[in-house]
Amino acid sequence: MRTRSTVAVAALAAALALPAGAAAKGPSSATMSGPGIQGVIPISGEGENGPGTPLGDLVTYGAYFPLVFGQSPDPTLRSRPKGDLGPVYTIRLVVPAGNSQRHTLVQLLYPFARGGPVTYMRAGQLVWDGQTTYGGWYRAPGQLTQSLVKVGLPATPPGSGGGGFWWSTGAVASVAAGALLAIVLLVGGVLAIRRRERPAPAH
Length: 203
What we know:
alpha+beta, 6-stranded antiparallel beta sheet, 32% helix
């Protein structure tokens, strides 16, 4: 199992081995997709120098560096936070990898989770040769959702009417199937009653 110190050393060694133009480890751009968003929306700005742009806010408040490279002390969580996380959004971060190469890292965002927004990054995603993401869960500050709402994230969970409930595709399908089954059973019951009520044929 990799320790945080091992990850940090590997990240430093990889950065020193890269050309100067590729040493920057922050994302150069990102996109977001999910419920209530038509297609994808771009998240642009500066990914290296802290908050102040949509991309900088995402990197800072979404714990990009701890989730990608590890950090000590470690602010990330090793297991999924308890409670309702609400709808999930997919963020794709484009990271320069040297020699004009780019890798895309996937980060999941739960902006309406109870207790505050949550981000998740799967461990083992390729950042550049020999370096993969540390991964984990992170309880983000409210500024993350506020910033992303400005670039197109819905202000409330889609389909909730502002009340915090979100109908997923699976939930809608389950309700529809249940309603159809109820109708079939009701019709079958009515037909059975009518057959019993018919007078017996005269002999």
